[in-house]
Specification:
The structure holds two protein chains of two kinds.
Chain A (H helix, E strand, L loop, with lengths): L1 H6 L1 H18 L18 H13 L4 E8 L7 H15 L4 E5 L5 E5 L3 E6 L9 H13 L14 E8 L5 H16 L6 E6 L1 H35 L3 H23 L10 H27 L6 H31 L7 H32 L15 H15 L1 H20 L16 H12 L4 E8 L9 H17 L3 E6 H11 L24 H12 L9 H12 L21 H14 L16 E8 L7 H15 L5 E5 L1 H35 L2 H24 L11 H24 L5 H28 L7 H32 L10 H11 L5
Chain B lengths: L4 H7 L14 H10 L5 E11 L5 E12 L5 E9 L7 E5 L7 E6 L4 E7 L13 H4 L7 E11 L2 E10 L9 E7 L5 E7 L5 E13 L2 E11 L5 E11 L10 H6 L4
Classes of the chains: A alpha+beta, B mainly beta.
């Protein structure tokens, strides 16, 4: 077989080069997609519900823009004219469905004769003080405007940009940059501009991923190769493994491009991983090859050279295959995740590792055959005992002398890790992908602090037939639900509901005949008389008596006074429900009243209901101040609980929207990661049990890596590193790479064991030879991942740090725990006589020949 | 800025007397359409079908009376018939010279007449694809009219006229293109373009019949190209120049539903 393959090395070279060139041409088709909508399976109920929601009510993702006056109120002549011009300009951007701002919002109010409806800011706006005051008054008059069109301190206003449904990521990107362009044209001396919202975040994640791929990957390659060079000290030995890595990376990305698999934020890691892991296979082959060359005295003939190459492949193939298979099992386990990028990551890193193995085992030997240059064997340098070896020796000695201390340290580490793990926060918060000082984080923070948040979901109430949603019973339920949720969950910034508009209409239609006369039933005050201090105090006390708690805010008190006096119909800011209050005899009349109100809205409630006159569906939008998803399950459960007791018969309730999809995504990420991690451990256990034909071997092998993962979770818990789409994968990645150290160590140990029965000597020798090589190997992988510290995306940064950490921990754990266990239990599987592969592994891992 | 709901509902049905047309400027064509005499009164039963993007349909039926006074200003009364939840809701629109229309509504559930002061011209009328602005006529000289070409549309020789507002801020369309039939001097089709210059809505007038001497489109369709929704307006019954008492167009009538 090997003979046949290597008879025509040129064919192999040509074939691999051909395939590589083919894949290079696929690379430009590779797309980057970070829309989390595409991250979860299409049949996920939350996604199905949200798509349905979008079909009815349009794209629910909005770009949030805030304009803040650096000094004073945004309600100034300059401020309003700026918002007006900005609104008009953004409206004309392609794929913008709608812009909602201060300058195009409506204002509806009651008058003694009827109702006034029109723009919040009139067409006759000149900016004089009286008009500005009027605008202030209007903005304060309806709770819907507060923290929506105007910030608490009046310094800022929000412009909401709705995008068309179903636009592509490139189109979203174009909108984002067009908006930025528009904003750049205004003076930043007097105004601050903020742009946030999910589409902006997605656009920026993709942009950062793109930059990371271009700048970090070459950097990773250089670092990994430099470390390998330091350990192997052979420049020639670096070039071919580099080729292997580059080729397998191109293949992997090329295959992704062919299958239209988009690169997501975690896709960035695929090349890093292939560089860090794939280089090892080439190194093993090259290293063994050089050892053989060096062993040969005199001139090497082409024929003999061919034998050396063939021998290398024969000898090295199996152990490298074992390392590759366990790595594939580790990474491939992520394919079990239901999170699409994680699944793809699992599939394509597995393919990439397979490719790296294949290329290493065919392309490198082929190139070596073709090159067959004349080698001279150099005399071996006398082995110097380095500081590093001394350190390893003393660590080993310590463990031998004080096993009790070792066990204690082990238990303390385990204890701390378990404690840390319990504090692990699982939340995939997209805004936290960015650094704290980035523009988008500042914008998001500003919008959440001054307005009603940048994340939301909807509650949909469905009736059975047209007109069902004019039933005061169900509207009353919606209103109660809204009040209940706002009271219970402080992270809810605002709830905008279909009912708010009906309440506003009811209020506007019940303004007392003359505002001068107040409400004749309750008022003792006549406006024609001046109000006595006693009257004023009496009014305040009557209003306060309706308060829901002792401590109420000024807006609440004003609202109570308004209600008490029915100021501009405030006593009717409610769902008409009480028959007597509305002098009606049956419910049907109330229903009709609501229909007639809806007629007055002239069908401009399409964001809130399915039909302008006879709605069978209505929507409430819950805006969240929190950026995470951790409370969403609590809120949705509370909604369901509340509906169970209060939702009238014949109606159903559902929740949908991006916050819920994101919450689902977080759950899928966490569950998928845990499942994948367990699968990888089991797979590795099975592979190694089979290889050594011993369950004990399988068990021993997964102990160091198991500890590594536990420490990883512990560190994450202690330092508040959240489990997100990237960091959740550390477990499976660490198993895939870290298990190799155990495999190498076990093989070398078995080899040393065959020479002597003194276990201390065995472990000492193993440690100083293979142990050293394992540390170098771990250092190169760890350093490669550590480059991700320079990523502009926080999850990748943490992933880099965590993988570097797990490499250090898993290599050290292999080197200490394995010999400790082997000494303690003296299992049968390690005692066998000479095993051919152990020698090879030992040698390759050392990267030098001591014989 | 008049919001003349009635004018358009009527204009849709207005027939122009036959007359030889000399193809002149775009303005001339529009002048010709405008100049034709319109009925003094109109009384119609109209069915509005609102068709959603997904094909679901909702029907509203209303009865409408319009009367033109000696100064040429319209007064209209709309009485909603279906759906039953809004039955008896009446809407009175009085056109004023030089100031906004007076609008009053009677809500039977409240048994009250309320005055409506609305200034949102680009809002939908009753959930239809017609905005208030679509319902009102524009002064000819607010736009620049150009004849783009002449072509046959629906079997009639037409002028295709492009109208671009002279002050873009004054209108929420960047331009409209109209197909004007040379023989009956009626607009057969209007394309309305949004601020980005993209086609937003298409209005078509079909099934012309000559009623009481006036050409009347029995079916008018407004299709919103961007949202996929459309509104179909069908004349169930229409009569012109019948005697409609002036006191039908008063707040008192609105409330009582009958003249004294």
């Amino acid at each position: 077989m090997i003979d046949r393959i290597f008879k025509h090395p040129w064919i192999i070279i040509a074939a691999i080069t051909g395939i590589t060139v083919f894949f290079i041409f696929q690379l430009p088709h590779l797309k980057i997609d970070n829309n989390y909508f595409n991250f979860i399976p299409k049949n996920q109920p939350s996604l199905v519900a949200t798509k349905k929601l979008q079909k009815q009510f349009g794209n629910q993702e909005i770009m949030d823009i805030a304009v803040q006056a650096r000094e004073g109120s945004i309600i100034s002549k300059k401020g309003i004219l700026l918002v007006k011009s900005l609104t008009e300009k953004i409206s004309t951007i392609n794929n913008v469905a709608d812009v909602i701002s201060l300058t195009n919002s409506d204002f509806i109010t009651g008058t003694p004769e009827g109702m006034e409806a029109g723009p919040l800011i009139g067409e006759d706006f000149t900016g004089d003080t009286r008009q500005l005051y009027k605008i202030h008054e209007r903005l304060l008059s309806w709770e819907l405007y507060r923290r929506n069109l105007i910030s608490n301190d009046f310094s800022a206003t929000q412009v909401v940009v709705k995008l068309k449904n179903g636009i592509t990521q490139d189109e979203e990107k174009a909108v984002y940059y067009s908006i930025k362009n528009v904003l750049n044209n205004y003076s930043h001396e007097e105004f601050n501009f903020f742009i946030a919202g999910m589409p902006s975040i997605i656009v920026l994640v993709s942009q950062n991923v793109n930059r990371d791929i271009r700048t970090l990957i070459p950097f990773v390659l250089i670092v990994v190769l430099f470390i390998l060079f330091l350990s192997f000290k052979k420049a020639g030995g670096i070039i071919l493994p580099t080729l292997t890595v580059v080729i397998s990376t191109i293949w992997t990305l090329g295959i992704m491009a062919i299958f239209d698999v988009e690169l997501s934020i975690i896709g960035t890691i695929i090349p890093v991983l292939l560089v860090a892991v794939g280089s090892a296979y080439g190194i093993h082959i090259i290293s063994y090859y050089y050892d053989e060359i060096r062993k040969t005295e005199g001139i090497i003939t082409p024929a003999y050279h061919r034998e050396i190459v063939k021998g290398t492949v024969k000898q090295i193939g199996m152990p490298v295959l074992l390392a590759a298979v366990t790595t594939i099992a580790g990474f491939g386990s992520l394919a079990a995740s239901r999170v699409i990028p994680m699944k793809n990551f699992g599939i394509f890193t597995a393919i990439g590792v397979g490719a790296a193995f294949l290329v290493a085992i065919t392309f490198i030997p082929a190139l070596l055959l073709v090159r067959h240059s004349i080698h001279k064997s150099k005399p071996q340098k006398a082995a110097k005992v380095t500081f590093f070896e001394k350190l390893l020796s003393s660590v080993h000695g310590f463990i031998q002398i004080r096993p009790d201390w070792f066990i204690m340290v082990f238990l303390i580490v385990v204890g701390f890790s378990i404690y840390g793990s319990m504090h692990l926060v699982k939340d995939n918060v997209m805004i936290d992908y960015f650094k704290k000082n980035s523009e988008i984080v500042k914008a998001d923070t500003f919008l959440r602090k001054n307005f009603s948040g940048t994340s939301s979901f909807s509650i949909i109430i469905n009736g059975k037939k047209p007109g069902d949603l004019t039933n005061p019973e169900v509207l009353k339920f919606m209103d109660n639900l809204s009040a209940h949720l706002k009271k219970k969950f402080p992270q809810i910034g605002k709830i905008i509901s279909f009912t708010d508009f009906i309440k506003l209409m009811n209020k506007s239609m019940h303004v007392p005949a003359s505002t001068d006369n107040m409400n004749s039933d309750t008022s003792v005050i006549s406006a024609h008389n001046t109000m006595s201090p006693q009257d004023f105090a009496a009014l305040l006390n009557r209003a306060y008596a309706h308060a829901e708690s002792i401590n109420i805010s000024t807006p609440e008190l004003i609202e109570l006074i308004n209600k008490e006096l029915n100021y501009k119909g405030a006593a009717y800011y409610e769902i008409p429900h009480n028959l007597a209050k509305y002098s009606m005899t049956d419910r049907e009349q109330l229903k009709n009243l609501i229909s007639q109100y809806l007629l007055l809205f002239s069908g401009n409630l399409s964001d809130w209901t399915d039909d302008a006159l006879e709605p069978s569906m209505a929507r409430m939008q819950v805006l969240l101040l929190s950026k995470g998803t951790s409370n969403i399950t609590d809120i949705t459960e509370e909604i369901r609980r509340f509906a169970k007791s209060g939702l009238p018969k014949g109606y159903s309730l559902e929740t949908a929207g991006f916050a819920i999809v994101q919450n689902d995504l977080t759950n899928l990420i966490v569950n998928g990661a845990i499942r994948s991690f367990l699968i990888s451990l089991i797979a590795v256990f099975i592979i190694l049990s089979l290889y050594y034909k011993s369950l004990v071997a399988g068990l021993f092998s997964i102990i160091p890596i198991g500890l590594t993962i536990l420490i990883n979770f512990g560190v994450m818990g202690f330092f508040g590193i959240r489990m997100d789409i990237a960091t959740a994968m550390v477990g499976s990645i660490a198993v895939g790479i870290g298990i190799d150290y155990t495999i190498h160590f076990l093989s070398a140990y078995k080899y040393e064991r065959s020479k002597t029965d003194n276990l201390t000597v065995v472990s000492h020798n193993t440690l100083l030879t293979t142990g050293k090589a394992i540390i170098f190997n771990a250092a190169s992988v760890g350093a490669g991942f550590a480059v991700l510290i320079f990523s502009s995306l926080v999850p990748l940064m943490y992933l880099g740090i965590l993988i570097a950490l797990t490499m250090v921990v898993s290599s050290l754990a292999s080197l200490t725990i394995i010999p400790f266990l082997l000494k303690l239990f003296k299992p049968k599987f390690i005692r066998g006589s000479k095993v051919p592969d152990s020698k090879i592994i030992k040698q390759t891992m050392r990267g030098e020949n001591n014989e | 800025m008049n919001k003349k709901l009635t004018i358009t509902l009527a204009a849709l049905s207005v027939l122009l007397l036959s007359q030889n047309i000399f193809a002149l400027s775009g303005r001339d064509v529009m002048e010709m359409v405008k100049k034709e005499s319109s009925p003094k009164t109109t009384h119609a039963a109209i069915q509005l079908d609102i068709v959603e993007k997904n094909g679901t349909e909702k029907t509203r039926i209303l009865e409408m009376w319009t009367r033109k006074n000696s100064k040429g200003l319209n007064r209209s009364l709309i009485d909603f018939i279906e759906p039953s939840s809004i039955k008896g809701t009446r809407f009175l629109i009085v056109e004023n010279k030089g100031r906004p229309d007076d609008q009053h509504i009677y809500l039977p559930a409240l048994k009250r007449v309320r005055r409506i002061a609305a200034s949102a011209r680009n809002k939908s009328f009753m959930g239809t694809e017609f905005t208030y602005a679509d319902m009102s006529s524009r002064n000819i000289d607010e736009d620049t009219h150009t004849i783009l070409r002449e072509e046959t549309y629906n079997g009639r020789d037409c002028y295709v006229v492009e109208s671009v507002p002279k002050h873009p801020d004054s209108y929420h369309y960047s331009k409209t293109i109209k197909w004007v039939a040379k023989d009956i001097r009626m607009i057969l089709k209007v394309e309305m373009y949004d601020a980005n210059g993209k086609l937003k809505k298409v209005l078509t007038m079909n099934d012309f019949k000559k009623i009481d001497g006036y050409w009347t489109p029995y079916k008018t369709v407004m299709k919103n190209i961007q949202s996929g929704r459309s509104t179909i307006l069908t004349n169930l019954k229409i009569e012109y120049d019948k005697n409609i008492p002036a006191d039908m167009f008063t707040v008192q009538f609105l409330k009582r539903g009958k003249t004294n």
